[in-house]
Amino acid sequence: MKRIFEALVCATVFAPQSVDTTTDKTTSFVDTSGASEIAFLVSTAALGAGKALTVTLMGSEQDTGDSPNAIGDAVVFTDSVGTDPQMAVVSYKVDPANPRYIGLKFQHNGDAAVLCSVAAAGRSLYLPAMNGWTAAK
User: Fold this and answer.
1) Looking at the predicted structure, is the pLDDT value of residue 81 above 90?
2) Cα(22)–Cα(82) distance, rounded to whole angstroms?
3) Are 101 and 62 in contact (CB under 8 A)?
4) Closest CA to 32 of 103, 135, 88
5) Using CA atoms, how far apart are residues 48 and 35, in angstroms rounded to an integer?
6) Does the CA dihedral 52-41-35-123 come out positive or negative?
7) Burial tier of 112 (Cβ tally within 10 Å: 0-12, 13-18, 19+)
8) Is the whole-model pTM more than 0.70?
9) Could you give the CA distance from residue 39 to residue 90 in angstroms, rounded to a whole number?
10) Angle 27-29-33 (CA atoms, 0-180°, nearest 5)?
11) What angle (nearest 5°) sits at the alpha carbon of residue 69, between those of residues 51 and 32?
């Protein structure tokens, strides 16, 4: 059985930086080929009680993320406490009907700019071990 760090491929897709309120930010896009599931971990400083982080999953046919389209509806995460850092987890089960490259668009409505970062973690598809068998013709 693999240890967790051996089973996942992780990458920073939005380096920690200050994000102004109501400003749309977009992460780098990840290639989902060969993956069964991708999770994005959006980390923010405290937003303020009742303030929210809105996240939209985006898909593109280009690795640069050009001309992205929303996949599904935006999801809103609300900071109920207001004084603690927040983490929103967005999971995406890879669907071949959607674009190959996936990223996030997000914004918050906090009272001021806050520090934000996003990491992506992916799990590869299970493939049986090579056994030397070939398909009969």
Assistant:
1) no
2) 17
3) yes
4) 103
5) 36
6) negative
7) exposed
8) yes
9) 6
10) 155
11) 95
